[in-house]
Write a structure and sequence with these properties.
mainly alpha; Rhomboid-like fold; two-stranded antiparallel ribbon; globular
Length: about 200
């Protein structure tokens, strides 16, 4: 239910901001303005904005399929605290995913970014930690890729594309969001990593 609420809120704000450019520019991620004007809210508010409908749909589609599972694990393992932990996880993921980009671009007044990709990547990688044998499907590829294989490949791709910097995709945000998403649950319960490797080894 929390995942559905998060999707609804992000979708509503994003759609409003499509036509409200004042809101869009006040909330987008701008390392330069954060550094110069101390507008710290941008670390969080940019997660509720998207460049266009396709950007929004892709992120919310991914969050829908993986977020409900991660939410269920949090609630199963932490009871009532799981609700707050899941919300905290999502928000802090988006923040942490943007920190490297902040230090990289804080002197660059032309750089800006929007989207929940960092937090969504974190949710995706938390699901990989919890269920490494699940299958992840990529558009136009009919064969599911085992999650524990998809994870390293995705990290390599994101790191490589981030260094190239040849497109407008925040690959560094995807990378660090993914890393945080895998590590955050381990900070709550280190035994997740034991179960992670047990599931993989038992499958072979």
């Amino acid at each position: 239910m929390l995942t559905i609420i998060i999707i609804a809120v992000i979708s509503l704000v994003s759609v409003i901001a499509f036509s409200n450019r004042t809101l869009f520019h006040k909330w987008l991620f701008s390392p330069y303005l954060i550094n110069e004007k101390h507008q710290w809210h941008r670390f969080f508010t940019h997660m509720f904005l998207h460049a266009d409908f396709m950007h929004l749909l892709f992120n919310m589609f991914t969050l829908f399929f993986f977020g409900r599972f991660v939410e269920a694990v949090f609630l199963r393992d932490f009871g009532e605290k799981g609700i707050l932990l899941y919300i905290l996880f999502f928000l802090v993921s988006g923040f942490c995913a943007g920190v490297p980009a902040y230090y990289k671009h804080k002197e660059n007044f032309t750089y800006s970014a929007v989207g929940a990709s960092g937090a969504v990547s974190a949710v995706l990688f938390a699901s990989i930690l919890f269920d490494p044998l699940s299958k992840i499907y990529i558009f136009l590829i009919p064969i599911g890729i085992p999650a524990f294989i998809f994870g390293p490949v995705f990290l390599y791709f994101s790191a490589r594309m981030s260094k190239k910097g040849t497109d407008n995709v925040a690959h560094d945000t995807h990378f660090w969001g993914s890393v945080f998403g895998f590590l955050f649950p381990l900070a709550l319960n280190y035994k997740y990593i034991i179960v992670f490797f047990e599931k993989i080894t038992n499958a072979f």
